[in-house]
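Sample log: Alpha-1,3-rhamnosyl/mannosyltransferase.
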Amino acid sequence: MKVILSVDSIKYPLTGIGRYTRELAHQLADNAEVSNLKFLHGTRLIDAIPKAVVSESGAFSGLRRKLLKNRLVVSLYQFSMPRMKGFVLRGQEDHIFHGPNFYLPPFKGRSVVTIHDLSNYLWPDCHPPERVRYMRSEIELSLRRASRLITDSEYTRKEAASFFGWPLEKIHVAKLASAAEFYPRTLGQLTACWKKYDLPEHGYALFIGTIEPRKNILALLDAYGALPESVRMRWPLILAGYKGWKSEDIHDQIERAMRAGWARYLGFLPTDELPLLMAGARLFVFPSLYEGFGLPVIEAMASGVPVICSNASSLPEVAGQAALMCGASDVDTLRILIARGLEDEVWRTSAVAEGLAQAARFSWRRCATETLVAYRAALGD
């Protein structure tokens, strides 16, 4: 089988989709069924997996964000870039092309696209308007060009079939997995991270994710703030992640919690430090309103950390029976579960063992195997 994988998302800072693309690229490169593997990087076909490097300065990044708000600039990009990619792909029709990040350029061969979630349609208020406009128009083109779709979860598979009117049998699930860097660590491995960020040893609850309304952080802060003061002060809440869209009210509440002494916001951390921060936590809390998969839940379980999450969208499918779950809007139950997650040693011991077993059910090799099923189906259409 000959494959071309788009790798534009492998860039710094490495997002969840960037990690997915990188891991899939490595697995496809090692798979005997793939006889020829190329990567579309920008408007070039390359043979090696690119590294996630810092490619633009802060000033350039700021300029880029401003340009993306300009409809004329975006329209010109939408008109020119897919055509340039399509030109590069000419003569490669004996390959199957995979767009792992919602988008497909024009291509006369067979194409597969990964649709990670439908948040731009179902939760548009959680994204900048210009991003919603851009993604919707590109996804609609991708749906016309695709032979098959891939989703990260069965939940999103059924959601996409219903929303887009696609036959369910033409949508395939390729579940994600935790990166190899997420695993239980020894005290010696964690000491430097704890010291750098002035954190208590296995003495904090953790949230990792973009600071945005869809992650339901205000509910998390309300629940944590309702815990007894002695509990909050003994095990503070640590938050790490990018400042996202419409996050001003969230940051205001984080600031109030920080002034009260029971919360810390670390900002965006380097990729190599996240596994250490995760493994050093006493509890991971993820009350998201909507996820296409919920990768941080699996990463926490793989790190040997007990998990509490919402039962929204795909999260029950990912967490299985290994996490405590509640409704995303049920702040009082979330408070009760957080207290149990911090204090109930019997449950904590059981949750660690069950979480490690649950995380082991997901692997990037399995993801690649399930992806190849979609490739074979597309080639057979």
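Observation: The first helix runs from residue 16 to 29.
Observation: Residues 187-360 form a domain with the Rossmann fold fold (CATH 3.40.50.2000).
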